[in-house]
Model the fold of this input.
Amino acid sequence: MMKANFHSNLDNEFGALTAFWSPRVVAVANGQHVKVAKVKGEFVWHAHAAEDEFFLVRRGTLTIRYRDRPDVVLTEGDFHVVPKGVEHMPVAADECWVVLVEPAAPTHTGETVSAMTRTIEQQTVNLR
Amino acid sequence: MMKANFHSNLDNEFGALTAFWSPRVVAVANGQHVKVAKVKGEFVWHAHAAEDEFFLVRRGTLTIRYRDRPDVVLTEGDFHVVPKGVEHMPVAADECWVVLVEPAAPTHTGETVSAMTRTIEQQTVNLR
Done:
């Protein structure tokens, strides 16, 4: 799927994003997708039954809201793993740039399908 | 292995590193390790038979030398995946800070055991 010797720059990949909450897959390794996403506002409450989700903030501030534990607030350079099966909602008051690592399979809204759901096909347009 | 709600900052994790070529596991998700490493000089030629290796440069310049394809030069914010089974040698003329994502299993020198090899136990001291 990726060309041999492919390499790129995170900020260039963020620059190619034109919509919020619309992740872009930028690398594939060991069945995992590395993605970039620009986010702003509230996402949807959701959980990934079988997948952990790694978040790294590149710019701005991201809050991960939880129903059963304290919220986690992440600023530039901060990272956090949302464990599989745990309901959460990402929120950013202002525009925030996030790097994600998660298995290639799931939609980014887990079992929840909403108007904000983007399929893997939509997230990997740049790789084809 | 990670505490619930654990979150941290990349640069703080780099700050905890006191040796070159001695990766530190900072997060675990989906059987993958997210690691930070400070590198300088030449590593060893090696390959990971079954594992891809994702590299993201946080600071400095890293060159991935290959035997069978052009070298890849990565500066701050650049990322690249070394495919499984492909022999490579990371090199940095000056100190370089690298974020790695790879399966939890392997040593960082693949099938090659050298004086520079650090076991997973040595790489995860901070998590216990």
Summary: Chain B has a mean pLDDT of 91. The longest strand of chain B covers residues 88-103. The helical segments of chain B are 10-15, 120-123. Chain B touches chain A through 34 residues (CB under 8 Å).
